[in-house]
Design brief:
Layout: H1 11-25, E1 28-33, E2 37-42, H2 48-58, H3 61-109, H4 112-135, H5 138-158, E3 161-163, E4 177-183, E5 192-197, E6 200-202, E7 205-208, E8 210-215
Parallel strand pairs: 4-8
Antiparallel strand pairs: 1-2, 3-6, 5-8, 6-7
Helix pairs in contact: 1-2, 4-5
Length: about 220
């Protein structure tokens, strides 16, 4: 509706009043002819009543009713689309809250399965220690420790963790190794001559670099 035009509650009447209002408010229209001549057209306000009658004649009752019906359909369609949009917005907000909660739970409990496996490993270490204290049998203790080591290795491998596999004589690689010192050696310069601590990788990512000593350059 035009600004300042009150709604009557009757769609047909409101449409008609809007049409008349628009014709009354036209003061001047500029028509560009051949891009050069500008013609000013003045609309005589004294012909308002004639325009009103002409407007009635231009739209017969059947066309008028059809227009009103179509507008009512469009209003209903608009309201339906607005309702659908509000529902989608609400669903999206619920989705955001749900996925955020799932993400928080995943971060909090991501290591739960690994911790459970570590508990079994700790139980075996505890049993082996208690058994060694009672029996004072060194051979049994070594056997128990060896079994625990194998269990720990299998646990790590199940989680995708493997040794880097450094050997004496391998090339030093800054992506895999931390060089703690340089030692005299018969090996060529830049070779691994001692491994102080093994390195491990998780799939394609380095979890811990190997700590090694490398060979000096010969003078």
């Amino acid at each position: 509706m035009q600004k300042g035009l009150k709604k009557s509650g009757n769609i047909a009447k409101d449409i008609y009043n809007t049409y008349v209002k628009q014709n009354k408010e036209k003061k001047e229209q500029t028509i560009n002819k051949d891009g050069d001549n500008m013609i000013d057209v003045q609309i005589n306000q004294e012909n308002t009543e004639d325009t009103k009658q002409e407007s009635k004649l231009n739209l017969n009752e059947e066309d008028w009713n059809e227009l009103v019906k179509r507008i009512e359909e469009l209003v209903k369609e608009r309201d339906d689309l607005k309702d659908q949009l509000l529902r989608k917005v609400a669903e999206f907000e619920n989705y955001k809250r749900r996925t955020q909660k799932e993400k928080e739970d995943l971060i909090e409990f991501a290591n739960a399965d690994l911790l459970y496996k570590l508990l079994n490993l700790y139980d075996n270490i505890e049993k082996a220690t208690e058994s060694a204290k009672k029996s004072k049998d060194l051979e049994s203790l070594l056997t128990g420790l060896d079994l625990i080591q194998q269990q720990a290795k299998r646990l790590l491998e199940d989680e995708g963790v493997k040794e880097i596999g450094d050997e004496i004589g391998n090339d030093f690689d800054v992506n895999l190794h931390d060089a703690l010192m340089v030692l005299d050696s018969e090996l060529p310069a830049g070779k691994i001559v001692q491994v102080f601590q093994k390195g491990y990788r998780h799939k394609d990512k380095i979890l811990r670099h190997s700590k090694v000593a490398t060979s000096k350059e010969t003078e």
